[in-house]
Write a structure and sequence with these properties.
- This protein is α/β, with parallel strands linked by helices.
- It contains seven helices and eight strands, in the order βαβαβαβαββαββαα.
- Helices cover about 30% and strands about 20% of the residues.
- Strands 1, 2, 3, 4, 5, 6, 7 and 8 form an eight-stranded mixed beta sheet that branches.
- Helix 2 links the parallel strand 2 and strand 3.
- The chain is globular.
């Protein structure tokens, strides 16, 4: 049986809404993503942080959730520390309302391709996440979820078709992204509470 894991990479967040301290914003985003991962079926879930951000993982993980410390907040660093898995997806932490189905689509192409990427929607470069068969292929370039594009990953592959591009989703990286949040959409409770001024 194929062993799969989805990892929330709790990397730096470069923007927070006016009046909301950066640490509280990061914590709310991370809490919502970790809560979503806990609902996924047929995959294991984990969190990855640098040693300096271990406090954030400790604040949001569920009991028993694996926490991986990595030297840098990149998917490549996460793939390098995962042992015992056949496939892994690494997801940015600033997408609190991402549907579980979107994350599932990131893993699905790995049955026939070594790498899959989900773009970040909203007009900025970057990725929502990247998935790979493990060990990750040697040709996988250094991936920065904030700046790397699907085209860059495909260009590094021996053949572009070895990289699947799956459904994307928005990340909360600026004021315009807040306007895309749908209040009727389930989930993102901690982020919603923080934005509405309710204690979280």
């Amino acid at each position: 049986m194929v062993r799969r894991v989805v990892v929330a990479l709790l990397g730096p967040v470069t923007w927070s809404p006016p009046g909301i301290p950066s640490e509280r914003w990061r914590t709310a985003l991370a809490e919502d993503l970790v809560d979503l991962l806990a609902t996924l079926n047929e995959v294991e879930t984990a969190v990855a942080v640098t040693p300096a951000d271990r406090w954030l993982a400790d604040a949001v993980v569920w009991p028993g959730t694996a926490v991986h410390e990595v030297p840098e907040p990149t998917p490549n660093a996460v793939f390098a520390v995962l042992a015992g898995y056949d496939q892994a997806a690494v997801v940015a932490a600033d997408a609190p309302d991402v549907p579980g189905l979107t994350l599932g689509k990131l893993l699905r192409p790995l049955s026939s391709r070594p790498v899959a990427v989900a773009p970040a929607e909203g007009g900025e470069p970057g990725l929502l996440g990247v998935a790979a068969r493990l060990p990750a292929p040697a040709w996988l370039p250094a991936v920065d979820l904030d700046t790397t594009t699907p085209a860059e990953v495909r260009a590094a592959a021996p053949r572009p078709g070895e990289v699947a591009v799956t459904a994307g989703w928005r990340r909360l990286r600026g004021p315009a992204d807040l306007g895309a949040l749908d209040p009727a959409f389930e989930g993102w409770d901690a982020t919603r509470a923080l934005l509405s001024g309710r204690p979280g």
